[in-house]
């Protein structure tokens, strides 16, 4: 069931103010509902009373540390406005001040608030002073992720010490019965007492992970005094954006290596033409070429490729990376999951089939960063999920994306190539002697 349908079943008030608590997908459910209502012409304010991910990481525009008047003006037109204040952690935002919230919310036709933290666990039992609910709340939705079922409690539950007060000290696998018991005792009973008259419900998220979702719903609901709804967010379409960096100075090469002929063709053309074929065959959604050289940009335009000039190549590879990234982000979809794959133009022997196999295996890996490698040594190309854009945009000088990769090594998928020559950068003409 979709989020807007759940609200309709519960009874939608004229101006719904909905607090999302629990664990297992609060932010994604908030954005789904916000987007749906915005598409129907509503002005929707999204905020938090605790912490939530920065809008940039979510691939969104946000009004962070903005005057209340600016937020209110943004809510004069239909759409989603994500607003909050800066946090001590750059990946997160905190809530608005009471005065800013009051002014902004007065202009919104619906307010959706992330009112609980879960540290990425699929289930939570609240501790003291949790969740943080505003008095104007009309609905409280308690989320839990189906991925928690069947797994030991200590692997899936945030605030484990409070869960054990309800279920006892034994670390047993979570069942439908025990999940219902946790949510009823941990959330429903205290919330009913503290916020009488509000509409409460439990949402079991990730229903696609269950073999018999309706049966599980009945089991959980039998332990609860509020309705239980099943929900699965539609998977976002993954979009791949290719960015070819062709703006270097070739200082060690002795001449412009990108125009240097390799088997009768300029070096940069080998990679650019292969990437163009990959895009044409539908394996990538866009292709951007960044260069300081008019000859390369002219050829890109001739082939129907979006070429962007870098007027500040002397600032290092970070400037080309960021110019390419800004250009590629113009191809983002409305509700897509975007990845940016960076290539260098001095790898003429990188094969099209190798790139295709890399993309296939990367998609299946579930990782958010990937790179080609030889004997576990990272090489180019490198691909990043949209959530790493803020870090990439902070790079300076001749520092490239690999510095971001190294900070998140646990999230990296390594695609091992058999031929190290495919990943070799032609920094000097000695490379030609080895071919």
Q: Can you walk through the features of this model?
A:
By secondary structure, the chain is of the alpha/beta class. 32% of the residues lie in helices and 25% in strands. The protein has 15 helices and 21 strands. Strands 1, 2, 3, 4, 5, 6, 7, 9, 11 and 12 form a 10-stranded mixed sheet that branches. A 7-stranded mixed sheet has the order 17-16-13-18-20-19-21, sandwiched between helices. A two-stranded parallel ribbon has the order 8-10. Helix 8 links the parallel strand 11 and strand 12. Helix 3 packs parallel to helix 4, helix 6 packs across helix 7 and helix 7 crosses helix 8. The longest helix has 19 residues. It is elongated, with a radius of gyration of 25 Å. The mean pLDDT is 91.
Portion of residues within helices: 25-40%
Sheet bearing the most strands, described? 10 strands, mixed
Q: Based on helices, strands and strand pairing, what is the structural class?
A: alpha/beta
Shape: elongated
- Mean pLDDT score: 91
Q: List the total number of helices.
A: 15
Total number of strands: 21
Low-pLDDT ranges: none
Strand content: 25-35%
Rg over CA atoms, rounded to whole Å, is 25 Å
Gap between N and C termini: 59 Å
Domain MobA-like NTP transferase: 243-411
GO molecular function, one term: nucleotidyltransferase activity
Pfam families: NTP_transf_3, YqeC
InterPro entries: MobA-like_NTP_Trfase, Nucleotide-diphossugar_trans, YqeC
């Amino acid at each position: 069931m979709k989020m807007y349908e759940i609200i309709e079943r519960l009874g939608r008030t004229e101006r719904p103010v909905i607090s999302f608590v629990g664990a297992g997908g609060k932010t994604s459910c908030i954005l789904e509902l916000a987007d749906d209502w915005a598409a129907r012409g509503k002005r929707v304010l999204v905020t938090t009373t605790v912490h939530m991910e920065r809008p940039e990481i979510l691939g969104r525009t946000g009004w962070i540390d903005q005057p209340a008047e600016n937020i209110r003006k943004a809510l004069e037109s239909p759409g989603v406005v994500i607003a909050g204040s800066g946090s001590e952690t750059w990946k997160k935002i905190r809530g608005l001040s009471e005065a800013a919230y009051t002014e902004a919310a007065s202009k919104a036709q619906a307010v959706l608030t992330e009112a609980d933290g879960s540290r990425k666990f699929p289930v939570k039992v609240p501790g003291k002073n949790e969740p943080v609910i505003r008095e104007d709340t009309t609905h409280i939705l308690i989320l839990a992720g189906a991925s928690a079922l069947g797994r030991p409690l200590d692997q899936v539950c945030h605030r484990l010490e409070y869960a054990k007060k309800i279920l006892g000290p034994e670390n047993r696998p979570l069942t439908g019965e025990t999940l219902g018991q946790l949510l009823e005792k941990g959330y429903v009973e205290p919330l009913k007492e503290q916020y009488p008259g509000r509409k409460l419900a439990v949402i079991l998220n990730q229903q696609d992970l269950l073999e018999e979702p309706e049966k599980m719903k009945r089991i959980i609901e039998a332990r609860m005094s509020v309705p239980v709804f099943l929900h699965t967010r539609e998977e976002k379409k993954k979009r791949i954006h290719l960015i070819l960096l062709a703006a270097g100075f070739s200082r060690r090469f002795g001449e412009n290596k990108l125009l240097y002929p390799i088997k009768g063709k300029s070096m940069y053309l080998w990679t650019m033409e292969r990437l163009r074929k990959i895009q044409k065959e539908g394996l990538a959604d866009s292709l951007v070429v960044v260069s300081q050289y008019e000859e390369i940009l002219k050829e890109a335009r001739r082939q129907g490729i979006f070429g962007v000039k870098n007027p500040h190549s002397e600032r290092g590879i970070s400037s080309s990376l960021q110019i390419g990234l800004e250009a590629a982000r113009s191809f983002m979809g409305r509700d897509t999951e975007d990845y940016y794959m960076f290539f260098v133009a001095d790898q003429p022997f990188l094969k099209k089939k190798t790139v295709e196999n890399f993309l296939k295996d990367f998609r299946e890996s579930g990782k958010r960063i990937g790179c080609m490698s030889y004997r576990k040594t990272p090489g180019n190309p490198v691909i990043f999920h949209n959530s790493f854009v803020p870090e990439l945009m902070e790079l300076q000088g001749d520092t490239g994306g690999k510095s971001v990769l190294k900070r998140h090594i646990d999230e990296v998928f390594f695609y091992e190539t058999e031929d190290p020559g495919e990943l070799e950068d032609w920094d000097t003409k000695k490379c030609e002697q080895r071919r």
